[in-house]
Amino acid sequence: MYSCFSRISTTNGLRIPLVRSVIFANRGCSSTTHLKTNEKKKLFTPGPLGISQSTKEAMLRDVGSRDVEFIDTVAEIRGSLLEIAGVSCNDFTCTLLPGSGTYAVESVLSSTTPKTNGKVLILENGAYGKRMGLIAAAHGLDCHVAHFSEDKRIDVEMVEKIMAAGSTDWTNVSVVHCETSSGALNPVQHIGHLVKMYAPS
Predict the structure, then answer these.
(1) DSSP readout, 133-164?
(2) Mind listing the pLDDT tens digit for each residue in 137-176?
């Protein structure tokens, strides 16, 4: 694969290459691929990223953040998510975060880990697990990243050995449910049972 540049633009003394096309060829520039902007494309990456036409159409209407309709809708979503999780609104709450998954992960890791004696166990088997380790390090959190094979689900027996060792009082255990980089679906329910067993507080 080659990148072909058609011209060089000079801006404030800087030479900036302007990319016209990406070329796929063994030698030279024999064929060019063009993406149609109006072409419908299905996204098969884990997420899910694809949304229905009706959802897209609903997003065309603006609603103010102080409108009663908006406030009621957010309250309904928050309550429904607690019901899905099977927990009581008397003990838990749900906060909607308007951002990327990484933004949500960083907000949770940085705000729920105790500043004093906080210890994070990160179970990593792909790019997003590694990213959690980087986030924890950037916030100066005391964390241990347990590495697992990227082409398999996280080994629950190995997790139990780590937690049963008792050498560390983990305050937080973090794992990616669906590791987007590989599509591996990790056994979070089994891991949750282990956390409740070995780190109930």
Answers:
(1) HHHHHHTT-EEEEEE--TTS---HHHHHHHHH
(2) 999 999 999 999 999 999 999 999 999 997 778 999 999 9
Are 121 and 147 contacting, i.e. CB atoms less than 8 angstroms apart?
A: no
For residue 192 the two structure tokens come to: 């949750």
Locus of tokens 């927990």: 87
Count of other CB atoms within 10 angstroms of residue 176: 25
Tens digit of each residue's pLDDT (9 = 90 or more) over 117-138: 999 999 999 999 999 999 999 9
In this predicted structure, the answer to whether residue 56 has a pLDDT above a threshold of 70 is yes
Tokens 């801006």 belong to which residue?
11
Alpha helices in the chain (DSSP H): 53-58, 68-85, 101-112, 127-138, 156-164, 188-198
CA dist 95 and 111 (Å) reads 13
C-alpha distances out from residue 136 to 107, 110, 173, 188, Å: 11, 7, 12, 20
Higher-pLDDT residue of 55, 32: 55
Residue 195 CA, chain-centre distance (Å), reads 21
CA distance 188 to 163: 15
Q: What is the C-alpha separation between 163 and 173, in angstroms, rounded? A: 10
Higher pLDDT, 27 or 104: 104
For residues 57 and 67, give the distance between their C-alpha atoms in angstroms, rounded to a whole number.
20
Neighbours of 5 (CB within 10 A): 11
